[in-house]
Protein backbone atom coordinates (compact mmCIF):
# COMPACT_ATOMS: atom_id res chain seq x y z
CA UNK A 1 0.00 0.00 0.00
CA UNK A 2 1.18 3.50 -0.75
CA UNK A 3 2.13 5.76 2.14
CA UNK A 4 -0.63 8.03 3.47
CA UNK A 5 -1.25 10.29 6.44
CA UNK A 6 -2.17 8.27 9.54
CA UNK A 7 -5.60 8.50 11.15
CA UNK A 8 -4.99 11.60 13.30
CA UNK A 9 -2.92 13.39 10.68
CA UNK A 10 -5.44 12.53 7.98
CA UNK A 11 -7.58 15.28 9.50
CA UNK A 12 -5.04 17.50 11.27
CA UNK A 13 -2.76 18.25 8.33
CA UNK A 14 -5.42 19.25 5.76
CA UNK A 15 -7.46 21.10 8.40
CA UNK A 16 -4.36 23.10 9.35
CA UNK A 17 -4.48 24.46 5.79
CA UNK A 18 -8.06 25.61 6.38
CA UNK A 19 -7.03 27.33 9.62
CA UNK A 20 -4.13 29.05 7.86
CA UNK A 21 -6.46 30.20 5.07
CA UNK A 22 -9.03 31.58 7.53
CA UNK A 23 -6.33 33.48 9.44
CA UNK A 24 -4.66 34.97 6.36
CA UNK A 25 -7.75 35.69 4.31
CA UNK A 26 -9.56 36.88 7.43
CA UNK A 27 -6.80 39.47 7.78
CA UNK A 28 -7.18 40.36 4.11
CA UNK A 29 -10.96 40.71 4.24
CA UNK A 30 -10.61 43.23 7.09
CA UNK A 31 -7.52 45.14 5.90
CA UNK A 32 -7.28 45.02 2.11
CA UNK A 33 -9.60 47.86 1.20
CA UNK A 34 -8.49 50.27 3.96
CA UNK A 35 -4.79 49.79 3.14
CA UNK A 36 -4.96 49.37 -0.65
CA UNK A 37 -4.19 52.92 -1.82
CA UNK A 38 -1.36 53.38 0.69
CA UNK A 39 0.12 50.07 -0.46
CA UNK A 40 -0.13 50.95 -4.15
CA UNK A 41 1.30 54.42 -3.55
CA UNK A 42 4.18 52.90 -1.57
CA UNK A 43 5.38 50.72 -4.43
CA UNK A 44 8.57 51.74 -6.24
CA UNK A 45 7.98 53.64 -9.48
CA UNK A 46 9.28 50.74 -11.58
CA UNK A 47 6.39 48.50 -10.44
CA UNK A 48 3.54 48.66 -12.95
CA UNK A 49 0.13 48.78 -11.25
CA UNK A 50 -2.95 47.96 -13.35
CA UNK A 51 -5.54 50.74 -13.28
CA UNK A 52 -8.33 48.38 -12.17
CA UNK A 53 -6.52 47.68 -8.91
CA UNK A 54 -7.46 51.12 -7.56
CA UNK A 55 -11.16 50.30 -8.03
CA UNK A 56 -11.15 47.24 -5.79
CA UNK A 57 -13.85 47.66 -3.14
CA UNK A 58 -15.14 45.55 -0.26
CA UNK A 59 -17.70 43.71 -2.42
CA UNK A 60 -14.95 42.70 -4.82
CA UNK A 61 -12.80 41.47 -1.92
CA UNK A 62 -15.67 39.58 -0.26
CA UNK A 63 -16.59 37.72 -3.45
CA UNK A 64 -12.98 36.97 -4.34
CA UNK A 65 -12.14 35.62 -0.91
CA UNK A 66 -15.35 33.57 -0.79
CA UNK A 67 -14.45 31.98 -4.12
CA UNK A 68 -10.90 31.26 -2.98
CA UNK A 69 -12.40 29.80 0.20
CA UNK A 70 -14.41 27.43 -1.97
CA UNK A 71 -11.24 26.22 -3.67
CA UNK A 72 -9.51 25.90 -0.30
CA UNK A 73 -12.43 23.84 1.04
CA UNK A 74 -12.25 21.56 -1.99
CA UNK A 75 -8.48 21.18 -1.49
CA UNK A 76 -8.89 20.38 2.21
CA UNK A 77 -11.59 17.81 1.41
CA UNK A 78 -9.27 16.30 -1.21
CA UNK A 79 -6.49 16.14 1.38
CA UNK A 80 -8.70 14.34 3.91
CA UNK A 81 -10.17 11.98 1.30
CA UNK A 82 -6.80 11.00 -0.17
CA UNK A 83 -4.93 11.08 3.17
CA UNK A 84 -2.63 13.80 1.84
CA UNK A 85 -1.92 12.33 -1.59
CA UNK A 86 -4.40 14.42 -3.61
CA UNK A 87 -3.11 16.65 -6.38
CA UNK A 88 -5.55 19.48 -5.63
CA UNK A 89 -4.68 19.35 -1.94
CA UNK A 90 -0.93 19.34 -2.45
CA UNK A 91 -1.00 21.94 -5.25
CA UNK A 92 -3.20 24.33 -3.27
CA UNK A 93 -1.15 23.73 -0.09
CA UNK A 94 2.06 24.57 -1.94
CA UNK A 95 0.77 27.70 -3.71
CA UNK A 96 -1.06 29.02 -0.65
CA UNK A 97 1.96 28.46 1.56
CA UNK A 98 4.36 30.14 -0.82
CA UNK A 99 2.01 33.08 -1.40
CA UNK A 100 2.94 34.11 2.14
CA UNK A 101 6.37 35.02 0.77
CA UNK A 102 4.60 37.33 -1.70
CA UNK A 103 2.89 39.13 1.17
CA UNK A 104 6.22 39.60 2.92
CA UNK A 105 7.89 40.76 -0.31
CA UNK A 106 5.13 43.34 -0.82
CA UNK A 107 5.62 44.62 2.73
CA UNK A 108 9.37 44.89 2.08
CA UNK A 109 8.80 46.70 -1.23
CA UNK A 110 6.48 49.25 0.36
CA UNK A 111 8.48 49.38 3.59
CA UNK A 112 5.40 48.95 5.70
CA UNK A 113 2.35 46.89 6.48
CA UNK A 114 0.50 45.34 3.58
CA UNK A 115 -2.59 43.18 3.81
CA UNK A 116 -1.79 39.56 4.57
CA UNK A 117 1.71 40.25 5.84
CA UNK A 118 0.84 40.08 9.56
CA UNK A 119 -0.25 36.42 9.33
CA UNK A 120 2.24 35.22 6.72
CA UNK A 121 5.26 34.76 8.96
CA UNK A 122 3.56 33.43 12.11
CA UNK A 123 0.82 31.34 10.42
CA UNK A 124 1.06 30.71 6.66
CA UNK A 125 4.72 29.79 6.30
CA UNK A 126 4.90 27.63 9.47
CA UNK A 127 1.75 25.79 8.39
CA UNK A 128 3.36 25.01 5.02
CA UNK A 129 6.46 23.71 6.80
CA UNK A 130 4.26 21.62 9.14
CA UNK A 131 2.38 20.07 6.21
CA UNK A 132 5.54 19.28 4.27
CA UNK A 133 7.16 17.68 7.34
CA UNK A 134 4.05 15.65 8.16
CA UNK A 135 3.65 14.39 4.59
CA UNK A 136 7.34 13.44 4.37
CA UNK A 137 7.33 11.76 7.80
CA UNK A 138 4.45 9.54 6.66
CA UNK A 139 6.19 8.82 3.36
CA UNK A 140 3.49 10.51 1.28
CA UNK A 141 4.94 11.22 -2.16
CA UNK A 142 4.80 14.76 -3.46
CA UNK A 143 2.24 15.20 -6.22
CA UNK A 144 2.94 18.93 -6.61
CA UNK A 145 3.64 20.05 -10.13
CA UNK A 146 4.54 23.74 -9.88
CA UNK A 147 3.27 24.75 -13.33
CA UNK A 148 -0.02 22.91 -12.84
CA UNK A 149 -0.36 24.29 -9.32
CA UNK A 150 0.19 27.88 -10.42
CA UNK A 151 -2.16 27.48 -13.39
CA UNK A 152 -4.98 25.92 -11.35
CA UNK A 153 -4.76 28.17 -8.29
CA UNK A 154 -3.74 31.26 -10.29
CA UNK A 155 -6.54 30.66 -12.78
CA UNK A 156 -9.05 30.36 -9.94
CA UNK A 157 -7.61 33.54 -8.39
CA UNK A 158 -8.06 35.39 -11.69
CA UNK A 159 -11.64 34.08 -11.99
CA UNK A 160 -12.28 35.12 -8.38
CA UNK A 161 -11.05 38.65 -9.06
CA UNK A 162 -13.04 38.88 -12.29
CA UNK A 163 -16.19 37.67 -10.55
CA UNK A 164 -15.60 40.06 -7.65
CA UNK A 165 -15.14 42.96 -10.05
CA UNK A 166 -18.27 42.02 -11.98
CA UNK A 167 -20.43 41.68 -8.85
CA UNK A 168 -19.08 44.97 -7.54
CA UNK A 169 -19.77 46.73 -10.85
CA UNK A 170 -23.31 45.34 -11.13
CA UNK A 171 -24.20 46.30 -7.57
CA UNK A 172 -22.62 49.74 -7.94
CA UNK A 173 -24.59 50.29 -11.16
CA UNK A 174 -27.86 49.19 -9.53
CA UNK A 175 -27.29 51.53 -6.61
CA UNK A 176 -26.86 54.48 -8.95
CA UNK A 177 -30.13 53.84 -10.83
Describe this structure in words.
- This protein is mostly helical and 177 residues long.
- It has one domain (7-46, 56-176).
- Helices cover 77% and strands 0% of the residues.
- The chain is built from 5 helices and no strands.
- It has helices spanning 7-42, 58-81, 87-110, 117-137, 146-176.
- α2 packs antiparallel against α5.
- The radius of gyration is 18 Å and the shape is globular.
How do the strands and helices of this protein lay out in sequence?
Blueprint: H1 7-42, H2 58-81, H3 87-110, H4 117-137, H5 146-176
For this entry, give a set of tags:
mainly alpha; about 180 residues
Structural class: mainly alpha
- Rg, rounded, reads 18 Å
Strands, count: 0
Global shape: globular
Question: What's the overall average pLDDT, rounded?
Answer: 96
Count of folded domains: 1
Number of helices: 5
Ends: how far apart?
Answer: 63 Å
Question: Which stretches are low in confidence, meaning pLDDT under 50 for 5 or more residues running?
Answer: none
Helix content: over 70%
Q: What composes the largest sheet?
A: none
Give the topology string: H per helix, E per strand.
Answer: HHHHH
Proportion in β-strands:
under 5%
Amino acid sequence: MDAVLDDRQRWAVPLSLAVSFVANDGEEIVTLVPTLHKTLDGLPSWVRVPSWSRRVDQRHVNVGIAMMGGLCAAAVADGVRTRGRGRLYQDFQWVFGLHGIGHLAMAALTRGYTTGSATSLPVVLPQLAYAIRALRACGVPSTVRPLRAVCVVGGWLAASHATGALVSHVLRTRNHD
